[in-house]
Amino acid sequence: MKKRVLALVLTAPLLFAITTVLAVGENLIFNIEGFQKYAVENSKQVTLDDLEIKTKESALLDAKEDAEFLYPASTKSERYNNDIKKDVTPLEAEANLEYAKRAKQKNIDNLKLDVYKAALNRLLIEKELDMQKAKLDILNEKYSMAEVRYREGKITENDLNDIKYSLDTKKIDVQKVEKSLKTAEMELKRLLSLELDDKDLKIDEKLTLAKWKSIKLEKVINDAIEKNIDIYKKSENLKVKEKIMEITEKYYTDSNSIYNENKTNLELARIELEDAKINLEVEIRNKYNNLLSAKDNVELASKWEDIQKKKLQNLELKLENGLVSRQELLSQQEKYLDAQYQTFAAIYDFNVLMAEFEALCN
User: Fold this and answer.
1) Amino acid 332: pLDDT
2) Listed residue (193, 170, 266, 196) closest to 47, CA to CA
3) Long-range pairs for 309-312 at CB < 8 Å and ≥24 separation?
4) What is the dihedral of CA 146, 151, 155, 156, to 10 degrees?
5) Which 8-state DSSP code applies to residue 204?
6) Per-residue pLDDT for 21 more than 60?
7) Which pTM was predicted?
């Protein structure tokens, strides 16, 4: 797809860029990968996850030791409990440890995704601020022109006041975007575990449209089901429930409450696992459809931007030949600025959806 290079270009999510971390004066300068690495290195969640893994490792050792040293069993209930302690508890502890390890990596991936989206949001707001300031300059020029026309008696005082109102409104718009930019920076600092009043941040990154890759959706779904940690947890839970039921059938029949309770738990575990697989598949398909729509939106926005740019160029030529007024040119400049920003907004939406889709499938 043909794409104009305007001033910013959106980067493919989470994939590349040489890490850059610089301190210049009162600013901290990072590229997006640098932000991500910094966030992970300073994450409190990573520390908590490491502690959780150590806890699960200790629990597994205890479960294995307990399985080797069982009290003599004389009753059916004692033999049942011993078999559970020998064959089920270690199995459950191993699954819990593996889940803790996978959860740590998933939390890291989620943090990287959040940093990516926050950085991208910051860059988009910067473009919005550029647009609003440019439109403010245009309105200032329009107001100056209107003052001249008013003094010449070509427009009324109400006409002049209307333009003044538009100018004042645009100044407020600029202030709102400046506040949004500060909010975006605070969110990025929060993810980086920085103090909110610490150095200002600067993103040393270009915004370019994420590369579209051919996606074999059925394979993506199957792979995602294999890798998803919530499905892993439910799958391991089903294995535990199957083992419990296998032991239960050695000692009890369907006339016993323990048998019926374990049988119910087994069926519930099967249902939960299948529901989780279906829900993940639906979520992936929906996200993919949204991604396709976002891709179309980028193409449409880019085409509309091209149209507005050509109109502006034509008006510039006509102005040189005295065929249009400066007022008409300024109005077209505003339309072009709007179209330019809408392209960036469409690219932002696409890149965020692409990053979310990749995170969902990994």
Assistant:
1) 97
2) 193
3) 309/4, 309/336, 309/339, 311/335, 311/336, 312/336
4) 110
5) -
6) no
7) 0.88
The sign of the torsion formed by the CA atoms of 151, 152, 158, 164 equals negative
Instruction: Identify the CA nearest to 77 among candidates 330, 248, 288.
Output: 248
**26: pLDDT confidence band, cut at 50, 70 and 90?**
low
Please, which residues have CB within 8 angstroms of residue 234's CB and are 6 or more apart in sequence? 269, 272, 273, 276
Phi and psi (nearest 5°) for 21?
A: -135, 110
Helix, strand and coil in the chain, % to nearest 5: 75, 5, 20
pLDDT tens-digit readout, 324-341: 999 999 999 999 999 999
Sheet holding 200-203, edge to edge: 21-24, 27-30, 200-203
pLDDT at 3 over 70: no
Residue 201 φ/ψ, nearest 5 degrees: -105, 145
Per-residue pLDDT reduced to its tens digit, 115-172: 999 999 999 999 999 999 999 999 999 999 999 999 999 999 999 999 999 999 999 9
Q: Is 289 exposed, middle or buried (0-12, 13-18, 19+ CB in 10 A)?
A: exposed
Sign of CA dihedral 129, 130, 136, 139: negative
**Cα–Cα distance measured from residue 82 to residue 60, given in angstroms and rounded to the nearest whole number:** 17
What share of the chain has pLDDT > 70, as a percent?
93
The alpha carbon of 21 is separated from its chain's Cα centroid by a whole number of angstroms, namely 22
Output the pLDDT for position 11. Answer: 38
3-state secondary structure at position 7: coil
Q: Which residues contact 19 (CB under 8 A, 6 or more apart)?
A: 31, 33, 34, 37
- For the record, the structure tokens of 358 come out as 């990749």
Token pair for 201:
């941040």
Token code pair at residue 240: 């535990």
